[in-house]
Automatic annotation (TrEMBL):
PANTHER family: ABC TRANSPORTER I FAMILY MEMBER 17 (PTHR43423)
Annotated GO MF terms: ATP binding; ATP hydrolysis activity; phosphate transmembrane transporter activity
Coiled coil regions, renumbered to chain: none
Protein name: Phosphate ABC transporter ATP-binding protein
Localization (cell): Cell inner membrane
GO CC terms of this entry: plasma membrane
Stated role: Part of the ABC transporter complex PstSACB involved in phosphate import. Responsible for energy coupling to the transport system.
Record lineage: Bacteria, Pseudomonadati, Bacteroidota, Cytophagia, Cytophagales
Keywords: ATP-binding, Cell membrane, Membrane, Nucleotide-binding, Phosphate transport, Translocase, Transport
Principal localisation: membrane
Residues in ABC transporter domain copies: 8-249
Domain of life: Bacteria
C-alpha cells in the first residue's frame, strides 16, 4: 500500500505560552485541496493551532512548540525554513476584515509590492485575477483607485482573501472569517470557500456548526488543548465517536 501524501500534518505537536500548555500532543493529517474545519469551545486552542501552521505565533513572547508541522512533508519549524517563504505558501485571513488604508488595487497587490514586483502589467493582471477569484471584480473594477475602507464588511473580507490569493499560496488559513459578517456576506464567503478548494487547501476555524457542516470535508474537534476527534465532516456530524463531541455539536455546551 502506498503511503498517502498529506498537505499538512502535525506530529506530536505541543505548544506552550510560557508555562501554559495550550496544545497537547496533536496528531492530524490534512488532505490537499480539501477544507478542514476546526471546531470546539472558546479557549480550546483552535486559533493557536491554526497559527502554528504558518508560524504566526512566533511573534508572541514565551510561545514555543515541540513536535513537527509538515507542509508537503517538510517541517516548517525546521532550521532551514524561511518564515517569509512559508507565509507566501500559507496565506491567512482573519476574523475581522483588515484591509490597509490604501486603494483597493494597492491592497490586492500589496504582497507583490513587498516582493519588489514593479511590472505594471503583472500587478494589473494579478489584481484582476485575484479579484475575479473572490467574485469581487465586477463590484470594484470601476473603483480600483478608491479606498478599500469604503467597501462593505463583506466586500472587505473578500478583498482580504484576494490579497492572500495574489501571492499564490497553496494553503489558506481562515480564522473565523465570517463571524463579523451579515448572513448574505457569509453565504458569499462560504460559496467562495467551496470554489477555492478546487485549487487550494483550506483550514477554517469556526464557531458555527452549520458552517462547518456546509463548507468542510473534514472536521477536527478540540477540547482544552486536545484534539478529541477528527473525521470526515459528514461522519462527525451524524455519528461522532466521543460523547464530548456529540454534546458540543448538538449545542449542549459551548
Ligand atoms: N498570547 C497568548 N498568551 C497567553 N495565552 C494565550 C495567548 N493566546 C491564547 N492563549 C491561551 O491559549 C488557550 C487557547 O487559546 P486560543 O485562542 O487558541 O483558543 P480558541 O479555541 O481559538 O478560542 P476562541 O474560540 O475563543 O477564539 C486559551 O486558554 C488562551 O487563553
Amino acid at each position: 500500500m502506498s503511503k498517502k501524501n498529506y498537505k499538512l500534518e502535525a506530529k506530536s505537536l505541543n505548544a506552550y505560552y510560557g508555562n501554559f500548555h495550550a496544545l497537547k500532543d496533536i496528531n492530524i493529517a490534512m488532505e490537499e485541496k480539501a477544507v478542514t474545519a476546526f471546531i470546539g469551545p472558546s479557549g480550546c486552542g483552535k486559533s493557536t493551532f491554526l497559527r502554528t501552521l504558518n508560524r504566526m505565533n512566533d511573534y508572541i513572547d514565551g510561545f514555543r512548540v515541540e513536535g513537527e508541522i509538515l507542509l508537503d512533508n517538510r517541517d516548517i519549524y525546521g532550521k532551514d525554513v524561511r518564515v517569509d517563504e512559508l507565509r507566501k505558501e500559507v496565506g491567512m485571513v482573519f476574523q475581522k476584515p483588515n484591509p490597509f488604508p490604501k486603494t483597493i488595487f494597492e491592497n490586492v497587490v500589496y504582497g507583490l509590492r513587498i516582493q519588489g514586483i514593479k511590472d505594471k502589467r503583472v500587478l494589473a493582471e494579478t489584481a484582476e485575477t485575484s479579484l475575479r477569484q473572490t467574485a469581487l471584480w465586477d463590484e470594484v473594477k470601476d473603483k480600483l483607485d478608491k479606498s478599500a475602507l469604503a467597501l462593505s464588511g463583506g466586500q472587505q473580507q473578500r478583498l482580504c482573501i484576494a490579497r492572500a490569493l495574489a501571492i499564490s499560496p497553496s494553503v489558506i488559513l481562515m480564522d473565523e472569517p465570517t463571524s463579523a459578517l451579515d448572513p448574505i456576506s457569509t453565504a458569499k464567503i462560504e460559496e467562495l470557500i467551496y470554489e477555492l478548494k478546487k485549487d487550494y487547501t483550506i483550514v477554517i476555524v469556526t464557531h458555527n456548526m452549520q458552517q462547518a457542516g456546509r463548507v468542510s470535508d473534514q472536521t477536527a474537534f478540540f477540547y482544552m488543548g486536545e484534539l478529541v476527534e477528527f473525521s470526515k465532516t459528514k461522519i462527525m456530524f451524524t455519528s461522532p465517536k466521543h460523547e464530548r463531541t456529540q454534546n458540543y455539536i448538538t449545542g449542549r455546551f459551548g
